[in-house]
Design brief:
The chain is globular. By secondary structure, it is α+β, with helices and mostly antiparallel strands. The protein has 4 helices and 5 strands; from the N terminus they run βαββαβααβ. It has a 5-stranded antiparallel sheet, with helices on both faces. The model is unreliable at about 1-5 (pLDDT under 50). The longest helix has 20 residues, at about 75-95.
Length: about 160
């Protein structure tokens, strides 16, 4: 595995849960357009379908993405993000009828420690539209998903 693509201090560990945040270039609110948001979501699902990640929770806000996933063994964290950002930028730009930078250059990641409660992190992720005042109930926001992590559910409504 090449560590040259990893920022200083970043470690890529298969099977580890990561919370990743990616922001659009100049914080453009491109995901306010439903069809553009769905193109990016389709690319997230493509990354998952090839086994690179197992999504736990995500929310696509108007100008950024929060994605909680477990890293697979087929690619490093940097490779997953490079592939996702490249492919999603191409399809979103095509949908928007534009070219050029779509995402900010980097991404923020947080590797969850063993003692961290991933249900609490997932709740935090999917509640972003509530905290931003975009909706009064998470079920009213169209661009999020979460797996059923425990029998208790997420308790968001």
């Amino acid at each position: 595995m090449s560590y040259s693509l990893l920022r200083k201090g970043r470690y890529s560990e298969p099977g580890r849960d990561y919370l990743v945040t990616v922001v659009t270039h100049s914080r453009h609110t491109w995901f306010a357009a439903f069809d553009v948001a769905r193109c990016v979501i389709a690319e997230m699902r493509r990354v998952e379908s090839c086994g690179a990640v197992s999504s736990l929770a995500w929310v696509l806000m108007p100008d950024h993405l929060h994605w909680l996933f477990s890293l697979g063994s087929t690619a490093s964290l940097a490779q997953v993000m490079q592939q996702f950002k490249g492919r999603s930028a191409r399809v979103a730009n095509r949908q928007l009828g534009r070219s050029g930078a779509f995402w900010q250059r980097a991404f923020h990641d947080h590797a969850l420690r063993d003692e961290e409660d991933r249900v609490a992190v997932a709740r935090y992720v999917v509640a972003n539209p509530l905290r931003a005042g975009l909706v009064s109930r998470i079920g009213d926001y169209p661009h999020w998903d979460a797996v059923w992590v425990t029998g208790e559910g997420f308790g968001l409504d």
